[in-house]
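Thread: quick sanity check before group meeting

JM: Hey all, I'm pulling together slides for Thursday and realized we never actually wrote out the predicted structure for the chain we discussed last week. Dropping the sequence here so it's in one place. If anyone has concerns about the input, flag it before I start.
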Amino acid sequence: MKRLRRYAIIGIVFVLVTGTLAHFLYEWSGNRKIIGLFVPVSESVWEHMKLLFFPMLLYVPVMAFRLRDEFPCILSSLWVGLLAGTLAIPVLFYGYTFILGRDVFFLDIAVFILSVLIAFGIAYRLAPHCRPKLSSIFLVCSVCILSACFLWFTYHPPKGSLFAKPAIGFCGQSFYIPGNCHADADM
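JM (edit): ok, ran it. Output follows.
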């Protein structure tokens, strides 16, 4: 368990650092489309899910390879953690913005950090316990589908708040809708 803990901590640090750098990489690359497939190209919640997903996806093979003999179910545990952490981002973001009626920068950062901790925490808790192989196939398919969605929706986002830039202000309603508030006159 000591090695598992050490690799989980390294993974947390790796994902936090690479995810943070990934936030700026698209702009730093001169808006290169190939880079945009793997890092956020907009301020949408969907694009920010990439900050956890792709860095952890890079780290999964390292951790799985190093711990596969001690923990035969490490790979499926990491897949569950990856999916849970990625999905935690919109759940936590929309949860707190629903309560507050707006987004807050330091809470956005806290959502990212908490989601990374959730991802590795779940993987850490599940790794010592094996699950049937059928679930591994389902998990791999889920990760592949989510990967394909990230790649496709980067430049072909569907309609919906998950794919749009978050609300830009608060106007006595849950989310700011341009044109529906006297504050627009001040802008």
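AS: nice. The chain has one domain: 2-186. The two ends are 56 Å apart (CA to CA).
JM: adding both to the slides.
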